[in-house]
Amino acid sequence: MAGPTGSRDIQSKSGSRKVVINGRFLCQPVTGVQRVAIEYLHAIDSLLAAGELGDIDVEVVVPASSPLLTTPALRQIKVTPHGRYSGHLWEQLELARYARGSDLICFGNVAPALSLFSTRTRVLTMVHDLSFVYFPKAYNWRFRWLYRVLVPLALRRSDVTVTVAEVERESILRHYKLERKSADLHVLQNGALREGVSKNTPLQAYAERAPEILYVGSLTRRKNAENLLIAASTLVEQEDTDFVVIGANGHNFSSAVGGAAYPPEFRFLGQIDDASAVYAHMRSARLFLFPSLYEASPLPPIEAMANGCPVVAADIPSIRERCGDAVLYCDPHRPESIAHVATELLTDHALWNQMQQRGLEKASQYSWSKQAQRLMAFLDDAAHPAGAPRSSPTGA
Length: 396
Description:
Elements: E1 17-22, H1 32-49, E2 56-63, E3 78-82, H2 87-99, E4 103-106, H3 113-116, E5 122-126, H4 131-134, H5 141-157, E6 160-163, H6 166-175, E7 186-187, E8 212-216, H7 225-239, E9 242-246, E10 256-257, E11 260-261, E12 266-270, H8 275-284, E13 287-290, H9 300-306, E14 311-314, H10 317-323, E15 328-330, H11 335-347, H12 349-363, H13 368-383
Parallel strand pairs: 1-2, 1-4, 2-3, 4-5, 5-6, 6-7, 8-9, 8-13, 9-12, 13-14, 14-15
Antiparallel strand pairs: 10-11
């Protein structure tokens, strides 16, 4: 995107370019946006350790008054507590002051307004989706008001703007009537597994796996919790299988399936933030069920495929874009369709083997490392416009 600040040479005192990452996500419960930010943080740290990002100094800054809910194991990136405030106030005031004179990366949909209007700060903002527009009842009025101001501001004023899917790019451009070329709003699909996590474990065949159907995600209306639970109730009764849920339970789905008590085969494990523990469940389950009504660039289906677990997913554009022909699709509005497609996969072992292989091949196309290289290259392009010398190639 052609940013408002033009070409600048932002450097740290040591002479290298200074990059500040907005680390507020490390103080938040881990949902999709936080997961993406954490994976990018690890990938950037690994690229720095390998010397693949040139002469830059990267620091992740967090509000000192907020406890860290995620403590990443980083080799090159320093975690710096700063300021007295927390939440949006910290982000808008104290982070903006701290990042002045640096490149600033914001993974959480919004950026400090002061930084966006600064002539001394280059800003990269990742806008994942417009769910606050699509599902207003899922958010309180203060959140909606703030995002209605800050998201379009970030889209118009950031030096680099990134979203996570072509479907979302088109939606964003259409909703805000942004008249610009497609290349001005970059698309970076999310990655798959974090490099080095559970990749060396042999994959299990169908017969070696536990009789389990797995779902990873929150149990909310936009995730289609009601139809998911009704379909799962049918499946555990007909297919002699358990249904395992990893994720937060929405308050509307705490005790019943269609008005009846949960079957004993339902197991709710709650939120699990350890990726390797989630992957272990994916490597032992026979089927991954994901009939969500709305997604931008969903992580769980790709992670399940990377762990050899075939997927039944909702037939919606964003999942089609991300998963292609590597999953079996169902009508998410009809529990009988969800159950029927899942039954087909569970009972046809040749189809199961075929979908496992397709899933492995599709998941191998996604890489956090490659996406992090591209993200840093976008920032590098903003720092060094066409014709200007670069300090080092990014490898993207």
